[in-house]
Every structure is written in C-alpha cells, then in structure tokens.
Amino acid sequence: MGSLMNEINLKDFYIPNYILSIGSEGESVSHLPVCPVIAFINSKSGGQLGGELLIRYRALLNKNQVFDLGESRPDKVLHQLYCNLGILKDNGDLLAAHVEKNLRLIVAGGDGTASWLLGVVSDMKLPHPPSIATVPLGTGNNLHFSFGWGKKNPGTDRQSVESFLSQVRSAREMKIDSWHILMRMRSPKESSSDSIAALELPHCLHAFHQDNWHVYRGGFWNYFSIGMDAQVSYAFHSERKLHPENFKNQLTNQKAYLKIACKQGWFVSPICHPSSRNISNVVTVKIMKREGIWEDIVIPLSIRSIICLNLPSFSGGLDPWGDPSKNKLRDRDLTPPYVDDGLIEIVGFRNAWHGLVLLAPNGHGTRLGQAKRVQFEFHKGAINHAYMRIDGEPWKQPLSVEDDKVSIEISHRGRVNMLANLPCRAKSVHDPSSTHSHSSKDYVDEDDEFTEEYEVVKKFGAASTFKYFNTADTVHYQ
Q1: Taking CA 119 as the corner, what is the angle to CA 118 and CA 125, rounded to the nearest 5 degrees?
Q2: Residue 431's pLDDT is what?
Q3: Are residue 294 and residue 345 in the same domain, yes or no?
Q4: DSSP 8-state assignment for residue 246
Q5: Do residues 347 and 307 make contact, with C-beta atoms less than 8 angstroms apart?
Q6: Do 172 and 191 belong to one domain?
Q7: Are residues 264 and 245 in the same domain?
Q8: Which of 203, 269, 421, 441 has its CA 20 to 30 A from that of 120?
C-alpha cells in the first residue's frame, strides 16, 4: 500500500512528454497532476549534491521535466514549454490548460541560480506566471531561507525529495518586489564593446556599448551591495573557480569564506584598508522616498559597505535591517520591512565585527533609510574599480576615473511569484498574518551614530527586458 501511495503522490507532479515537446508520441493520462512541476537543478552547486539531486529527480519524475542548468538554459526551456502549451490549448487539450494554470517551478542552487530563474520568469511577462520554490544548494541561500525553504543543503535520498515535493504542493503563493538596476559611465575613446563583453557579470546583469556610454542594466530580488562585503565575496568566488576541488560542501565553503574574510582584512579594516575607500569618500547616495523628490542621505564616515536589501536575509540568514522599535519607526519615518511594498531598505556596515552584531537578539546594521529609488553617484577619480554583488553573485566593476557622472540607479520594477513554506521569514504588506514584533529598545543601537551625523548636517541644510537599452532610462542623466 505504501508503494502505491508514493506512486500516486508522484503522479501529482508528473508532466507527460507530449506536453513538454510538440511532436512527441501522445500519452493516455488517467491521473490529473495536482501540482505539475518543472525542475531546474544546478548540478555544480553544493559539491556533489547537485548532481545527486539531478539523478534523484529524474528517477522520480519524468526525466524530461527535470533540467540540468549546466546543459539547458531556463529561458529556452520555458519559452519552448509555453509555446507548446499554447498550441495544445488552441487544439482543445484540457490537460495543457490545466498544466499552464497549476504549474510550479523548482530551482535547486544558490542565490545566483534562483535569481537567474526569477529573472527569466519576470522577463517572459506571462498572463499567469508560475510560482517558484527554491532548494538551497549554495553557500548563503538567503532567498531560500527568507521563504521558509531552509539554508542547509537538503538530503538527496528518495524520502527527502518526496517530502520537498509535498511541501511544494502545499506551499502558498507570495509576491516579491523586483528591482531594476542601471549603471552608466562615459567610455574612454579607445574603448569598444569588446571591453565590456569581457566582464564576467552576474546572470541578471547585462552590458552594452551605446554611443559614448557603457551601460549596465539588470534586476535583483534580494540585495545589491557595494564595498568590502562584495570584495570578500569576489575573492571567495575567484578562489573557488580556480580550485573547485577545495570546495566540496557547505561547511567547507563557509570556513573558506571566513578565512578569506580574515585575509582580506574585513575584521581589521581600519588597519588594512585606507579610509579613502570608505563609502562616504567614494560615492554620494541619494534616495527617493516620495515621487520626484531626491534627497541625500548621510553616510557615517566609518561605513565600508552598503546593502540595498529587499528580503530579511543576508550573509547566510542574518537580517541586517532587523525589527525597528515603534519609536524608531515614528522618529525616522520608517515602515516595517515588507518584501512587496515597493520600498527597499538601505543598511551600512563598518567591518565584519559590526556584522557580528546580527547574531545578537535584535542586532542590526546602521539603518540609513528606506526608498522607492536609490542612486549612487561616484566622486570623480575616487577609485578606478568597485566591488559589487547582486543576489550572491559578485563582480569587480571598472569605473571611469575621467567621468564625473558615473552613477548607479536602483528603482522598483514589479513583482514576481514565490512559493512560501513554513516558517516563512518574509512578510507581505497584503497579508494580515504578516506582523512584526517591536522591542521597546534595540539590543545594539547602531542608529545612534547615524542620527548624530544626520542632525549635524541637517542644521546646515544638508533579464530580456534587461538585455535591451531603453532611452527612457537616460532621462535622469540628461
């Protein structure tokens, strides 16, 4: 009886070949799948776990509904699938209509892999886009943790995979803000499109050469960061790429990450890194809280890293924004950090020791503000490159030292559908059950440093949509 139950349960997720590929031999389907799924697995994530998980899913489901991201791009797979569904629906196929309505996606990998699929689904602009569940196979797994899918690598045995599929079937849909990022700088006279094509950018970021400009645009769902945290992450990813044999599992990776952070001087940054590279000496940060009104925000002189955060998870499950008290919300004109309210939280860190306060109850970084849009304007000639990171994927960005208009602008783009499991840390502004508890006093009140500097200054008055450049984006730069 147990074997029969497992078979019936697995049929709930099964998609026949003729749905997946037009021209395949027709099948007689006696069981209507309650939760048809398409699974994308990064076989290179999680050491050997990605490959093992790929084998397991293909054994339990139709192997043709399980894709290795090292061999199949999700945009090509999904475009073909929805093309097939459209043709079958036009021919009156009821199963095709059912699959399209109830389809859910599974993506197994780290934050970068999950964001890749989110970008593809966002770009397709489907009338009824599928919701996405994530299997944590990365080092941080922040997106996975935010929506209740855990942060530890999963089991690859049959029981673990079947349990996960059952959770996917019962998970609730939840929307999440997506954010557009646009960076522009004048290109040197001797520069060409080849110079930006050679950059190793995150999946969700695309480079262009237009007239005399280098343009970079893309999207993110969890965070964008700039500064020392991205520098450490870049060093880690570079080392892993050179010596993949030394990065076999999650625990080993986390130890290696900590070792690199120490080597990079993230724990002793005042000694190892000149203050000239502190954020306030490199960029001016502006935010738009109300439509059409830009205002400068004060960056404490000691801040070496800034994070624009959409989800309550960063660096392996820590929450840099925390849960501001009611007094803080009122005095600083802040709102609770929801993932679908069209606002992004901006947090600063001095060094790794500052980051460790997140381990304490109610610990948080230096809250700099919330905004609908954020802009970084680099000081002319301050630095010739900057380390940046989007949703777990870091890169080293060359900057034009001759240009006084090197800018990055982040703006709200829209929303995509996630699947939320219990316990889900992400909170929705539209969900009455999404409530925040506010302590009467924060455990580590790093905002005091920010408030003091702000008061002093105040006294003196102070994915395919991502692949094509839109001239409307240049309005702010004219």
Answers
A1: 95
A2: 78
A3: yes
A4: G
A5: yes
A6: no
A7: yes
A8: 421
pLDDT at position 329, please?
78
Mark 136-159 as b/e (b = at least 16 C-beta within 10 Å).
bbbbbbbbbbbbbbbbebbebeee
- pTM of the complete model: 0.80
Domain coverage including residue 359: 178-420
CB 273 within 8 Å of CB 265: yes
Owner of token pair 């690598």: 153
Do 172 and 281 share a domain, yes or no?
no
DSSP label at 424? P
* Residues contacting residue 18 through CB under 8 Å, at least 6 positions apart: 24, 25, 26, 27, 88
Angle 476-370-143 from CA coordinates, rounded to 5°: 100
**Residue 446: its pLDDT value, please?**
44
The count of structural domains within the chain is 2
Q: Which letter does DSSP use for residue 475 in this model? A: G
CATH number at residue 292: 2.60.200
pLDDT of residue 19: 94
Q: Note the pLDDT of residue 360.
A: 47
Distance CA 210, CA 101 (A): 40
- The pLDDT value recorded for residue 51 is 94
- pLDDT for 263 equals 59
Dihedral sign from CA coordinates of 184, 188, 193, 199: negative
pLDDT value of position 356: 47
232 belongs to a structural domain: yes
Question: Beta 131-136 vs 104-109: how paired, if at all?
Answer: parallel
d(CA 208, CA 216): 6
- By the 10 Å C-beta count (0-12 exposed, 13-18 middle, 19+ buried), 190 is classed as exposed
| Alpha-helix residue ranges (DSSP H) falling in 273-399 | 279-282, 326-331, 352-356
Name the domain boundary from 367, 401, 420: 420
Alpha carbons 276 and 240: distance in angstroms, whole number: 29
293-296 contacts at long range (C-beta below 8 A, 24 or more positions apart): 294/375, 296/462
Q: Rounded to whole angstroms, how far apart are CA atoms 290 and 139?
A: 37
Break the chain down into helix, strand, coil percent, rounded to 5.
Answer: 35, 25, 40
Could you tell me the mean pLDDT of each successive run of 10 residues in the chain, 478 residues long?
52 94 72 95 88 96 96 95 94 93 96 91 92 91 93 91 96 95 81 62 86 88 89 78 70 65 53 63 92 91 90 79 79 87 91 46 76 94 88 88 85 94 91 51 43 39 45 40
**What does the pLDDT read at residue 437?**
45
Burial per residue of 14-23, b for 16 or more beta-carbon CB atoms within 10 angstroms, e otherwise:
bbbebbbeee
